[in-house]
Amino acid sequence: MAYQLLQGKKGIIFGALDERSIAWQVALRCHEEGAQLVLTNAPVALRMGEIKRLSEICQAPVIPADVTNMEDLENLFKQAMDHFQGGVDFILHSVGMSLNVRKNIPYTEANYDYMHKGFDISAISLHRVLQTAYRLDAINEWGSVVALTYIAAQRVFPDYNDMADAKALLESIARSFGYHYGIKKKVRINTVSQSPTRTTAGSGVKGFDGFIEYAEKMSPLGNATARQCADYCVTLFSDLTRMVTMQNLYHDGGFSFTGVSHAIMEMLMKQALQEQK
Ligand code: NAI
């Protein structure tokens, strides 16, 4: 159901790769809610071509930008401001990649070039985006920025590898820049900590099926889908959440505050009984 919560608002969506991407679902929901959009992704991702379909549905131009390249980001914001004939009201940062994860390198044997690259793409890029917007005065007063994160920033999930450290940095940048942008222009910046979700980036994590199953059984409401994450992002871009900033907001069906669930206990008890036999 659409409520026209974003009627008249303009936004930039980073990170829609294919239909499974969380950013893809956010773009669709923002479009349904009346927003005008600009879509962006790394040039190499755009070559895969799927984003064209999204761009047609949302009637949104696609502007390539590698989030680690300041020239690309400056060009993106300038072109977006030309397109909208003014500033933007919201930004979704839905970007993440770890080369150590991709190459199956264990956390304790991390390659530091890969680690630097991963931190730049997954975390420092939020600073780069915000700094570019700040310099160009590209975000309108009471604008809203959301970056996607995962609970491995707070608690250990061994196979999440150095993405856990990248997410901790991302959340910290959201807080720190949230202060400065709040003072300057009442722009709010938050991170949304989403349930494990079957996407290209998600499925790259070792043992991902186990992650999803465990989280499903540990969450009173079950895992949140990408579409539900998009609903939540819409509320954060809307005027209904104007005083929410510098927060890490869990969107995980209650996983983050559940110590143990009956479903997990029952599984463990069954296993223990079998072992006794
Ligand atoms: P995805 O693979 O669809 O999206 C990741 C995006 O990052 C892709 O569109 C990719 O092209 C883009 N990207 C990578 N390097 C880039 C660069 N240098 N410049 C510009 N863009 C670049 O996967 P998903 O899951 O939708 O990921 C979106 C965000 O959600 C990520 O930050 C991820 O860590 C986060 N997240 C995902 C969860 C999951 O289980 N899938 C759970 C919690 C958070």
How would you concisely characterize the structure shown here?
The chain contains eleven helices and six strands. By secondary structure, it is an alpha/beta fold. It has a single domain, classed as NAD(P)-binding Rossmann-like Domain (Rossmann fold), CATH 3.40.50.720.
Summarize the structure in words.
By secondary structure, this protein is an alpha/beta fold. It has one domain (10-209, 221-259): 3-Layer(aba) Sandwich (Rossmann fold), CATH 3.40.50. It contains eleven helices and six strands. It has helices at 22-32, 43-46, 51-58, 70-84, 99-102, 112-136, 163-185, 200-203, 208-218, 226-237, 262-276; strands at residues 10-14, 36-40, 88-93, 139-149, 188-194, 248-251. A six-stranded parallel sheet has the order 2-1-3-4-5-6, with helices on both faces. Helix 7 (163-185) links the parallel strand 4 (139-149) and strand 5 (188-194). Helix 1 (22-32) runs parallel beside helix 3 (51-58), helix 4 packs parallel to helix 6 and helix 6 (112-136) packs parallel to helix 7. The longest helix has 25 residues, at 112-136. The radius of gyration is 19 Å and the shape is globular. The mean pLDDT is 96. 1,4-dihydronicotinamide adenine dinucleotide (NAI) binds next to helix 1, strand 4 and helix 8. The active site is at 150 (proton acceptor), 160 (proton acceptor). Belongs to the short-chain dehydrogenases/reductases (SDR) family. FabI subfamily. It is an enzyme of class 1 (oxidoreductase). NAD(+) binds at residues 15, 21-22, 66-67, 95, 167. Keywords: Fatty acid biosynthesis, Fatty acid metabolism, Lipid biosynthesis, Lipid metabolism, NAD, Oxidoreductase.
